[in-house]
UniProtKB/TrEMBL annotation:
PANTHER family: CONSERVED COMPONENT OF ABC TRANSPORTER FOR NATURAL AMINO ACIDS (PTHR45772:SF9), CONSERVED COMPONENT OF ABC TRANSPORTER FOR NATURAL AMINO ACIDS-RELATED (PTHR45772). This is Amino acid/amide ABC transporter ATP-binding protein 1, HAAT family. GO terms for molecular function: ATP binding; ATP hydrolysis activity. SUPFAM superfamilies: P-loop containing nucleoside triphosphate hydrolases. Pfam families: ABC_tran, BCA_ABC_TP_C. Keywords: ATP-binding, Nucleotide-binding, Transport. The keyword Mitochondrion does not apply. It comes from the Bacteria. Residues 2-250 form the ABC transporter domain. GO terms for cellular component: plasma membrane.
Length: 262
């Protein structure tokens, strides 16, 4: 579905992404891991149109999407969430979802005067869909809560819900587990798996929680110093000596009880 070919992103003399090549298969949940500064979020931003690459190409279903702005990619079904949730804090959870679809009739002043019936019909349909999304995510009890009052994990679920309002094809999730307690992280994981299996969503996610990665992701891609270091199943990655030295050496390799000579 997504093919990244020899992508570079330089900031002056700093090569944040340095010749990355990878593929995200249609229908997969792909994990992207690596140490801080490996270039993961920068690569996400290049794919999602937030940043233009210095060189290289990104294609989606064979179409060159290199450098297309986020709003154009949004209409193609490619969405990206952020490590820090970007909710509209003064609006309710339900309202946050209802405003996601673009091209709503009520967006223009002319239509608010002359197409009130159409606007009312659209709002009823959006309300119904928003409630279905909230029920799917098991946060329907929060539908009338101000989004700014939600916990970190609930805000991550709300961001996931936004992707459901437009039936996304591929969703890039940046550190979905950051600041989220284990119970809510499991709920988020369950929702991702269900969206993948029941609705055909393709996911690529950056995450540092290797247990979460191992539960959800196949394949797992490892980045280091702007390059793709390794790719494979979670078990294969965690046994890869090159990965252990470059990334997991300060994490998995030195976990309490781990073999110090591994």
């Amino acid at each position: 579905m997504i093919a990244v070919r020899d992508v570079h992103k330089h900031f002056g003399g700093f090569r944040a992404v340095d010749g990355a090549t990878l593929e995200i298969r249609d229908g997969s949940i792909t994990g992207l891991i690596g140490p801080n500064g490996a270039g993961k979020s920068t690569l996400f931003n290049v794919i999602a149109g937030v940043l233009k690459p210095t060189s290289g190409t990104v294609t989606m279903d064979g179409e060159d999407i290199t450098g297309l702005p986020p709003h154009e990619l949004f209409h193609k079904g490619l969405l990206r969430t952020f490590q820090i949730a970007h909710e509209f804090s003064s609006m309710t959870v339900r309202e946050n979802l209802m405003m996601v679809p673009s091209g709503q009739t009520g967006e223009t002043l002319w239509n608010t005067w002359f197409h009130r019936r159409r606007i009312a019909e659209e709002e009823r349909a959006l309300l119904k869909k928003a409630d279905e999304v909230l029920e799917f995510l098991t946060i329907d009890h929060l539908k009338d809560e101000k989004a700014g009052n939600l916990s970190g994990g609930q805000k991550k679920l709300l961001e996931l819900g936004r992707t459901m309002m437009v039936d996304a094809k591929v969703v890039f999730l940046d550190e979905v587990g950051a600041g989220v307690n284990r119970t809510l992280l499991n709920t988020i994981g369950d929702a991702i798996v269900r969206l993948n299996k029941e609705r055909g969503y393709t996911f690529c996610l950056i995450e540092h929680d290797m247990d979460f990665i191992a539960r959800l992701c196949d394949p797992v891609i490892v980045m280091a110093e702007g390059k793709v270091l390794a790719q494979g199943s979670a078990d294969h990655i965690m046994e890869n000596e090159q990965v252990i030295e470059a990334y997991l050496g300060t994490g998995l390799k030195n976990k309490p009880g781990a073999d110090a000579t591994a």
